[in-house]
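Supplementary notes for students who missed Thursday's class. We covered one full example, reproduced here. Read the sequence, then the structure, then the short commentary at the end.
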Amino acid sequence: MDSRAIISACKIMDVGGDSVQKGSQSFKFDIPVYIEQTASVVGEKESEGPLGRMFDVVIKDPMSGKDNWEQAESALQEAVVDKLLMKTSYKKEQIRYILSGDLLGQLIATSFGISKYEIPHFGIYGACSTFGEALSLGALIISAGAADRLICMASSHFASAEKEFRFPLGYGNQRPLSATWTVTGAGACILGYEPPPRPDNKTLNTLRNRNICAVITGITTGRLIDFGFRDSLNMGACMAPAACDTIARNLQDFHRKPSDYDAIFTGDLGMVGQTILLDLLTEKGFDISSVHQDCGMLIYDPQTQDTHSGGSGCGCAASVLAGYILPGIIQKKWKRILFVPTGKLQRGGSNSRYRTRCCNRTVQGSGYDVDTEIFSGGKIHGLF
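Structure (token representation):
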């Protein structure tokens, strides 16, 4: 499953007009949806990677003091929501909804992880693109006036994912070079209908740099794509066709070129999937090689951390977006980006068949457009 999103830095300004459908799969918000703040929580291995200093919280105990892996992942979600509310000084009563999910059956990590907050909850499953799906649906809810503020969140845990989808850790299965390493981590954002207040350097910490904010300006919802790929240890090859389809559709629906984006971030294609994606898009007439980056390739150092093709999981795209990409937007590192979290849908076990879907969303602040697209195992969600 793949997803992509475009995110950009913008100055605060009045934006008028009507939201409209674009092309065959996209939607444009003329009144943008603001990303008020982010939070990220990761495990020890992730903290030792190239982005380690950018995450808010590091939990070194892989069990998080719990009795099993599922409870440990629930602890990640609880920690990231606690951090998000602490940074903004919001009380739980000020949050209308939580849209969140994980990789496990019946979203068990999410269900127990957020139960203490007693906030109305939408459970979302989009495989590794879940965060993009949450952002897409959250932006639609805000734009429709159904909420003034909500939380979008996703998590994954290396051990719980291996247990459910591949092989138990005690089995000691050999991993081919095409395999990715599921990120132990979680990311969360608060979406709102108006610009966040200025940080006061005391109790209020918002995603704002003077008048620069990150906003969502549109979405592109992708299709389920099934190439019949069955190797759970080569996720990148499974997700790349869906990522290609959604990225191409986003560019066509919004009449854009790859150079219109400062960066295009996929979620977790890894090195194998990146190569396939670039080849497939070239066949469609799009060259994104100069602007493409992959969250799974950013979060780990393959030379020193032995992660093979890269990182993966709901927590991969979520933690990198929350900890690295969105702060970079308001720091003017990029003006406009396309965020494409990727994922695959599969049955439990090693011989699973994958489907992919995608959606994308556009994030815009005054002066810039941001597109985010998310792909998930034949399913793609995009934001921009």
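Commentary. Confidence is low (pLDDT under 50) at residues 348-381. The domain at 4-383 is CATH 3.40.47.40 (Peroxisomal Thiolase; Chain A, domain 1). If anything here is unclear, bring it to office hours.
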